[in-house]
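Title: Comparing notes on inverse folding

I've been comparing how different people in this forum approach sequence design from structure. To keep things fair, I'm posting one structure and asking everyone to reply with a full sequence. Here's the target:
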């Protein structure tokens, strides 16, 4: 097989998008959680063509990153999963100023990335530059934070309608949605669907291709990078600029719903990193037990934080 690959220039068999849906099923069953999670899935997908040139459009950014909370433990580069730093309700912030957003609260690929550069997951400064360059007409006055909820009912009945209402209030024409963890990809997919149904064109910039396509979205720019880098490689301005430009192109030119474009950028010469994320087959019994215990601890923290916060953002002002 190696001779065949060398002769024809084939890529390695594992050099394909990570199958997150199956990987998650196998991983959590190995941890002993029983029935697999049922991911959201639609056959029909709404589609709203961009109604004007992008250079005349008002664009909104929707993120699953969380405002840094210094009293909630380690949220810095390389921090382990931190349930205390989660937020549980939609929040909005001023796009005219800088913000300290972190992703220690989500299941990014901590083996192959560190979340050291917010530019790789929160492209607000890049969007400001796009306005200055005339590539987009304007940036909405606010960006919006979308919670990472496993509950379909909470996401569909509470979080997504709030996103739509805030985007409508800000008179946006298009939305760029940037997820991080697997469930984040589901959440932004559901939000994109409701935004399109409300007449707002969307593009998801994501790294979990199968999850977003399984939900069913109008437009996806897929970057075959470790989770947490949907906006480009960290500390690589050229990569981030090229990724955002591809998202703009998909937003402008997608001919119909379920348009997926894959970025040509490559994370590393060796694609072995794709075999690592939540791969139960590579874990020892002791490591599985350790991960189960840690996951149970984090679930307990999250459960305590949710008590009394049905619509609040864990103490974060909604405005």
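Reply #1:
Here's my take.
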């Amino acid at each position: 097989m190696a001779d065949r690959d060398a002769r024809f220039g084939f890529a390695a068999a594992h050099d394909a998008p990570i199958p997150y849906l199956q990987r998650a099923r196998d991983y959590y069953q190995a941890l002993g959680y029983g029935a697999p999670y049922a991911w959201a899935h639609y056959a029909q997908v709404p589609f709203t063509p961009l109604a004007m040139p992008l250079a005349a459009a008002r664009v909104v950014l929707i993120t699953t990153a969380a405002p840094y909370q210094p009293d909630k433990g380690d949220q810095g580069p390389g921090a382990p999963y931190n349930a205390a730093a989660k937020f549980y309700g939609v929040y909005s912030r001023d796009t005219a100023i800088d913000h300290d957003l972190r992703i220690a609260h989500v299941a990014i690929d901590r083996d192959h990335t560190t979340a050291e550069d917010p530019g790789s997951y929160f492209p607000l400064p890049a969007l400001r530059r796009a306005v200055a360059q005339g590539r987009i007409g304007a940036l909405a006055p606010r960006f919006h934070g979308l919670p990472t909820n496993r509950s379909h009912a909470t996401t569909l009945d509470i979080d997504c309608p709030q996103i739509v209402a805030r985007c409508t209030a800000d008179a946006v024409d298009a939305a760029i949605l940037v997820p991080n963890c697997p469930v984040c990809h589901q959440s932004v997919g559901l939000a994109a669907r409701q935004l399109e149904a409300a007449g707002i064109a969307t593009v998801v910039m994501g790294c979990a291709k199968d999850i977003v396509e399984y939900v069913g979205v109008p437009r996806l720019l897929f970057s075959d990078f470790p989770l947490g880098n949907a906006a480009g490689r960290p500390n690589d301005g050229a990569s981030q600029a090229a990724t955002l430009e591809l998202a703009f192109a998909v937003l402008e030119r997608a001919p119909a719903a379920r348009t997926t474009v894959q970025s040509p950028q490559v994370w590393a010469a060796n694609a072995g990193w794709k075999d690592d994320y939540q791969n139960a087959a590579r874990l020892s019994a002791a490591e599985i037990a350790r991960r189960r215990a840690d996951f149970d601890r984090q679930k307990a923290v999250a459960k305590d934080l949710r008590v009394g916060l049905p619509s609040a953002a864990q103490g974060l002002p909604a405005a």
